Amino acid sequence: MDTLVEFRHITKRFPGIVANNDISLSIQKGEILAILGENGAGKSTLMSMLFGMQIPDEGDILIRGKKEHISSPLVANDLNIGMVHQHFMLVENQSITENIIMGIEPKKRYFGLFPYVDIQSSKEKVRELSKQYQLEVDPESIIEDIPVSTRQRVEILKMLYRNAEILIFDEPTAVLTPQEIESLLGIIKNLRDSGKTIILITHKLDEIKKIADRCAILCKGKMVGVFDVASTTTQEMSALMVGREVSLTLSSTEHKRGTEVLRVEGLSVETNEHIRKVDKVSFTLHRGEVLSIAGVAGNGQVEIADAIAGLLPVKEGAIFLAGKDISGCTVRERIESGVAYIPEDRQSVGLILDFPLRENLCLKQYYQDPYSNSRGVLQKQEMESLAKQLISTYDIRSGSGVNTLARSMSGGNQQKAIIAREINLQADLLIFVQPTRGLDVGAIETIHKKIDELRAQGKAILLISLELDEIMELADSILVLYNGKVQTIKQASEMTKLEVGEYMMGVHVEKA
Amino acid sequence: MDSIIIEGIAFSIPLFIIAIGGIYSEGSGVINLALEGLLGFGAFAGGLSYALLSSVITGNPLLLIYASLAFAMVGGALLASLHALMCIKFKANQVISGVVINMLSVALTAFLANQINASVFGQPSNKFLLEIFPKVTVPLLSKIPILGALFTDLYTFVPIIVVIALIMAYILYKTPFGMHIRACGDNPHAVAAAGGNVMKIRFISVLVSGALAGLGGMCFAYSISTTFSPNIYMGFGYLAIAAYIFGSWKISRTFLACILFGFARSAGYVLVQKLELPSSYGDLVLTLPYIVTLVLLLFFSSKTKAPRALGDVYE
C-alpha cells in the first residue's frame, strides 16, 4: 500500500498546553484509520492541521510523498482533502444543492452575457453523486427542514463533489441515533471500498472495532502508538487511551428500593404546533431506583423530561413529586421542591455560555442565602467558594478556575459542571437526559459511577438515553417509549437488549 | 383615485430601493439601522452636486438631474463605508453604529450645508434648491382605465429604480455572488469553509445598501420638497426597515409592503382633501404609514424570519 499522508514530528502548542507533542503518523491509501483519544487528547488539533485550519509549530506534513504547507482549507481542498466537522458548516436557508456547490458554482449566461448559477445541472450532478455513493438526499430540500443525519450526508457529498480523496470525519456519530450510526458506518465502509482514504476521529471503541483497519491512539497530546484493530481488544485500546485500566462495565452496588418519589399519571404533552409527543404515559419512580426511558430519538422521551422539569406545559394528566401534584408549579417551585435536571442540550439549556463557571454553578441558587444577601445583592465571595468547592470535587477542568467562561470549556467539562450543580441541589429526583452524549470513555465512566453512587444514596433517578448499552448497564427498570406511548415497563433484569430494541422499534410481540 | 396611484407610486418606489439596500446589508448579516442617515447623506451629496454643477453644466438640466442621482449614490456609499468599517473591521456593535450614523448624518449635513452655502454661494441656508424632476405620461398605456394612472405623470426616476431593482434582485438570487451574500447572513463559517471572503462580501453588501439608500433619498428630495433640507430626515429609512422586515428580507414581498405604505400615505392625503379638512390635518396623514406599520406588526412580526447570522460578528 502507498503512504498517502505522513505527519513527521508534529508539535502544536496553544497558550498553556502542548496540544500535539512530537507526533509522527503515516496514513495508507484506501484504509480507514481511526484516531482515538479522550477529549482534549489532541485528535482534532492534529486533523485540523491536515485540513489547514491550524499550522504546526514544528514538523512537516507530507501528502503523496511531497512536503506541503497547508495554510488554509482551500489549500487542503486542492490537495483533495475534505473534512466533515463536528459542527456542520451548512447554510440553513439554502437548498442541499446550493450548499454543495458553494464556492465552485457552475455558471451559465443569460443571452450569453449575464452569468447565473446553473442550479439545474448542479441538481443532476448531486443526484448522481448521491446515487453513486448511496447517500440518498433530495437535492432540492432546504437544510433547515432536514434531520441531522441527512445534513451529515450533505457534508459528505460536499467533500465528494470537490473530488476529495482523503476524508476526515470529526466524531461523526456523536449526533446520531443508533440506527443512523449503523447506516453511517456502512457509508464510510462504502467510501473506503470505492478507493477513498478515511480518517475517523472518535472515542467510541465499538465503532472502531466495527469498521476501522488501524487505530492511532493519542493520550495527552502524545502518540501512544498505531494498532491493528483486528488484533487489539477494546479493553486494551481503552487502557491505552486513558492511560489506565477502565472498567467498561459497572459492578452495580446492591440497593434497596425505597419510598415513591415521582408518580406520573396519564401524562400527555403537546408541542407548540399541537403535535402530541407524549400520550397518556404513567409510571412511578422510587428512592434508590434508576428508571430508564428507552426509545429511538424523537419518540417523546425528552418531552417527558421537559414536562417534569416544567419546561413544557402538561396537556393532560398529573405529576406527583413525593405525593404532591407539581404539574401546575413554576420551574422554580419544582426546583425548590426537589427536581434536578441535566438537560439534553447542555449548551443552550444547561449553561449560559458567556457566564463564568462561578455564576453557572450557582444558576439555580443565586437568589438564595448566602449567594444573595437580604437586600438582594449578589455575594460574589460566596459564589466563588461554592464554585471552587464544586470544581475540585467534580474535577471540572477549566483554564482559569471560577472565572472560566463556559463557552471555552470542552463538552465533557461542561457536562461535569452541570452535573455538579444539579447534584449539589440535593434534590430527591434527578433527571438525566443523554448524560454521556459526545463524551469520551473516561468521562462516561465518571458519570456512570456518579449515577450509581446517587442511587446508593437513595436518590430517585430518571435516565433518558439513546444508548442502549448505557440503559442496560445502569437501569433497574426500563420504560420503552414508542410514538409517545408506553410500550412496556419492566425490571431491567427481565428484558434482554434485543427485546428492548424490538420494543423501541414498536415491533415486539408479546409471547403468550 | 388617479392621484392616489400617482402619489403612491412616487413614494413607494424610492422607499422600495432603500429597502433593497437594507436587504443587501442585512442579508449578508450586518444589521443596518443606518438607512435613515444614509438616505439623508445621499440626498445631501446629490443636492450639493446639483448646486455645484449647475454653474458648470448649463443648458442641460436633465444631465444635471441624473448626475445628482449618481452623486447621491456615491454619497450614500461613502457614509455606508463608515458603518461597514465599524461593524466588520472593528467589530463594533452594529445597532449602535447604525444609530450613531443616523445622528451623525443629521448633524453633519446640516453643518456642511450651512457652511457650503455661506462660503461658496454667499447665502447662509441649510437647503439646496433643486429642479422639479421630469415626469412623463406614456401615450397609449396611460389611457387604460384605472391602471393608466400608473403611466400618467410618472417621475422618470420610477422606471430607473425599477430597472435597478430588477438588477439587484437578479444579482442577489441568481449569481454566485448573491448566493454568497445570502449565505453570509445565514452561516458565514460555511462561506469561509467554501473559500469565500466573508468580510469582503459583507463590506460590499453594506456599500451597496448605502448607494441604494442614497438613490432613494435623492428621489425623495426631488419628489417631496424639490430641495435638499434637513426635513429629509422624516423616518423614511425606518419605514424602509419595517418594509423589508414585513417582506421577510425577500425582495418580492418587500415590494408589496412598500406599495402598501405608499398607498396608505397617498390615500390619506386624498382623504384630507376630499373631506376638506384644514391643511394642518396633512400632518396627521404623515402618521398613516406608521400606524399601518403598527397594525401590521400585530399580524406579521411572528411570521417573518431574519437571516440567522444577522448581527453576528464574524472573526
From TrEMBL, chain A:
CDD domains reported in the protein's UniProt record: ABC_Carb_Monos_I (cd03216), ABC_Carb_Monos_II (cd03215)
InterPro entries in the record: AAA+_ATPase, ABC_carbohydrate_import_ATPase, ABC_transporter-like_ATP-bd, ABC_transporter-like_CS, P-loop_NTPase
ABC transporter domain residues: 5-245, 262-508
The keyword Nucleotide-binding is annotated on this UniProt entry: yes
Keyword Kinase tagged: no
Entry keywords, A to Z: ATP-binding, Nucleotide-binding
Coiled coil start-end: none
SUPFAM superfamilies: P-loop containing nucleoside triphosphate hydrolases (SSF52540)
Pfam families linked to this entry: ABC_tran (PF00005)
Domain of life: Bacteria
Molecular functions (GO terms): ATP binding; ATP hydrolysis activity
PROSITE patterns per record: ABC_TRANSPORTER_1 (PS00211), ABC_TRANSPORTER_2 (PS50893)
Protein name: ABC transporter ATP-binding protein
From TrEMBL, chain B:
Transmembrane segments: 6-25, 37-57, 63-88, 95-116, 154-173, 203-224, 230-247, 254-272, 284-300
GO molecular function (one): transmembrane transporter activity
InterPro entries listed in its UniProt record: ABC_transp_permease
Membrane topology reported for the UniProt record: Multi-pass membrane protein
Keywords for this protein: Cell membrane, Membrane, Transmembrane, Transmembrane helix
KW Membrane (keyword) present: yes
Pfam families: BPD_transp_2
Source taxon at top rank: Bacteria
Subcellular location, record wording: Cell membrane
One GO location term (cellular component): plasma membrane
Name this polypeptide is given: ABC transporter permease
Origin species: Sphaerochaeta halotolerans
Lineage: Bacteria, Pseudomonadati, Spirochaetota, Spirochaetia, Spirochaetales
